[in-house]
Amino acid sequence: MSYRATLHRLVDSLSERDLPAVGQVLASFATTDPVERALLLAPLDDEPDTDDEDHGLTEAREELARGEGISTEELERELGIK
Questions:
Q1: Exposed, middle or buried, 72 (CB in 10 Å: 0-12/13-18/19+)?
Q2: For residue range 41-72, what is the model confidence (pLDDT) as tens digits?
Q3: Could you give the 3-state DSSP secondary structure of residue 50?
Q4: Domain ranges of the chain
Q5: What is the C-alpha to C-alpha distance for residues 36 and 24, in angstroms, rounded to an integer?
């Protein structure tokens, strides 16, 4: 059996839960960009956000829910980017 066929068999035997992690590892082999590889292999940030760690997160979400945000175009105009 070829290596490719063996890998296909192994992937087919994985649980749905394991596929994202294995996919990241395989994708890291498909790139020659060291930064992209590092990002693909970096551990996922699974820590929940809290207001203690990110002050204003709840406030910002509430403002967005009330429609008080501004568009990207408005922000760019205010900052003189475009």
A1: exposed
A2: 888 788 887 767 777 877 888 888 998 988 88
A3: coil
A4: 1-46, 48-82
A5: 11
Q: Which residues contact 82 (CB under 8 A, 6 or more apart)?
A: 73, 76
pLDDT digits (tens, 9 = 90+) for 17-47: 999 889 888 888 898 999 998 988 888 788 8
Q: Which two tokens stand for residue 76?
A: 């760019």
- Token readout for 61 is 């979400």
Of 22, 71, 67, 80, nearest in space to 30 by CA: 22
Tokens for 52, please give them: 């203690």
